[in-house]
Amino acid sequence: MNAATSPVLEVRDVSLGFGGVRALTEVSFHVNKGELFSIIGPNGAGKTSMLNCISGRYTPTAGRVFLEGRDVTGLSPNHRATLGIGRTFQNLALFGHMTVLENIMVGRHHLLKNNFLSGALYWGGAQKEELAHRRKVEDIIDFLEITHIRKAHAGTLPYGLRKRVELARAMAVEPKIILLDEPMAGMNLEEKEDMARYIVDLNEEWGMTVVMIEHDMGVVMDISNRVIVLEFGRKIADGLPDEVMNNERVKVAYLGVDDDEDAA
């Protein structure tokens, strides 16, 4: 994997609280352009809360988030999407009544000068623009091997395919960095292997910077450039996969893991 040296994302001393509950405490890290970067930790460590701070769903209580050197801390999720942050969710957020193709096209909505939902698709510049965006979407559909379901309604699909469609929609944003929240959760072994391959190819062949939360430690250690570990909202390790795996504090953190959910 070819990780460059210039940070595309910097998280600086981010803290997040909900009333008296502290979800994150002074967490700092950076992600280099072209990296496949993973955030791991026991359940309840604050991993999803961190992705929410990066994507704009949550505003940190303290600290800043920078995208390519620009402070995006106060910007909305939609504004961050236009600047190049794509996102998938732990709980699927597809439009079940829409086709796979339509769901993916929604991911390109902010890139359209003409509103492709307006009913004026086939007139003038709107037609040319829509066709150009459709070609990009078809490339994503081919890459993720979902051509056979492109006209199916998302709500009718098996869970593993819906996860793939959500990844497709996030890719359609053409992000500078893509945030993957447990992309392999709930999948069987074959589906996990396929998804891991897509993520590696997305990083290596498409040149997309990836930040991933994933509980499957084998996958994380096999495909990541760098890994950070959160425990009770604090960063306890940061480094290469082998370094993190051999960190004594990390070993302790993973003993006796309960079934609590991550902080929302």
From TrEMBL:
Spell out the PROSITE patterns in the cross-references. Answer: ABC_TRANSPORTER_2
Q: Which SMART domains match?
A: AAA
InterPro entries associated with the record: AAA+_ATPase, ABC_AA/LPS_Transport, ABC_transporter-like_ATP-bd, BCA_ABC_TP_C, P-loop_NTPase
Any one GO MF annotation of this record: ATP binding
Whether Cell inner membrane counts among this entry's keywords is no
A cellular component annotation (GO) from this entry? plasma membrane
* Annotated signal sequence range: none
- Keywords tagged on the record: ATP-binding, Nucleotide-binding, Transport
Domain ABC transporter, by residue range, is: 9-257
Q: What is this protein called?
A: ABC transporter ATP-binding protein
The record lists the organism as: Magnetospirillum moscoviense
Q: Which Pfam families match?
A: ABC_tran, BCA_ABC_TP_C
